[in-house]
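Case study 2.
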Amino acid sequence: MNGVGVHGWTSPESVDQSATTLPAVVRETHTAYIVMIGDMVFKAKKPVRTAFLDFSTAGKRRAACLREVDLNRRLSPDVYLGVAELTDPQGGPAEALVKMRRMPDSRRLASMVVRGEDPTEPLNAVAGLLTGFHQRCRRGRDIDHDATRDAVAARWRENVDEAAGYGDGTLLPGVEVDEVRFRACRYLAGRRELFDERIELGRIVDGHGDLLADDIFCLPDGPRILDCLDFDDRLRHLDVIDDAACLAMDLEFLGRADLAETFLARVRAESGDDPPPSLIHHFIAYRAFMRAKVSCLRHTQGAADARADAHGHVRLALRHLRAGSVRLALVGGLPGTGKSTLSRALAERTGAVVIASDHVRKELAGVDPGVSCGADYGHGLYTEARTDGTYAELLRRATRLLSRGRSVVLDASWTDPRLCAWAAAAADRTHSDLIEIECAAPRSVAVERIGHRPPGGVSDATSEVYDALAARYRHRVSATLIDTTADLPAATDAALALWGETGERPQPAPSVQADEAVSTPGSPL
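Prediction:
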């Protein structure tokens, strides 16, 4: 820096190095040069222009520095001290620098995680700080507009297209990128109501936008969160759980999925927010793919580890897109075969919502669930018309939940192929995975179970009803048989295997035909 005048900060030669043991360090990112001298940090923007930022002139770099300080003071006002200038004695334009208080690298959250420390308490403090920040964040229609289903879909499109183009299309595995595109599209296609609901709940804010463990410092007097996304306001206009999902993604990438779950649970507890698990998976996937794209850019700039990072982040995105697929599970079978028990166990393990036909049938009739309405098969509450109405209501409720990102388990007999077709149509309309399970047990076991049911239960089934249904029953070839005569854990594990398989099924690579198939009415992509 010889021959350069500095305003707003002390020259390197006169910094009191005796006041600190911190060494002088120069670092470089894909958009900035960072100089650490003593207990101060100075950041200069690189004169670069990319698809998502423009620092090509001194004036634009100065505006970016001012913006960075203003935005980051919302979370760490004692760290972002202002904007300094480097002046050129030969009359060239001054260069703006972000002036910051230096943070101890040993207290960086990412460093703590890599060292194997237990950062649970600092993470709890981060969750509290983030939740309080979100409560104060600016909200408004302009911010909501950038977090609609269609806006999120547009960002997915842009990111996938950009990432796929790096290295002449060879840097990332094409099959994996194709599956990311397909799964992100499919989730969003059926979830407009979910994104509308999040807006109505006031969950969209002008937030941080890039919450990574590398930019969080766990100090004795509380955490400091740095380096919010400052180059494009639209990318900071997001769902609060999207903001939190970014750090969860980063913790998982660092090998601590347990910390990611702990952090998200704390955020939900602090905020009182209850987003569906599928939305959290979706946003973690989005954040992972964003980091994959950044790693692709770093690779073009010569970073040795960037290719491996990009591949790792794409795989992380895929895991969460698969886990976040919304599912409609039909758990059927004859009376006494254990479908209600299995439905509850499956829902408990997956976070799905159970809707039982026995409850809905009596609710529609205005009858208390514990009141017996026993009648011969096909009579009373069990006529064909009553049954059709019950299943129609089951699927109406399921559709509402599916469109809001909640997976559903429907506990009913599912012995009528016509009604099964209704369910398949509901899954198609909401772009949800359909799982069909048929509980099976010998007649002797089923009848014994029916006979041992306590009084006041919701089911009206008897051994006579079992025999009447069995006489008409035909196994659905589309359903997977699960033997429920074994213990419940074994049956539940079998159901969970089916649940997981729906997320693992290979998807078609994008083509005109595949895109047309996905872009049905209501699809955003």
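The longest strand covers residues 80-87.
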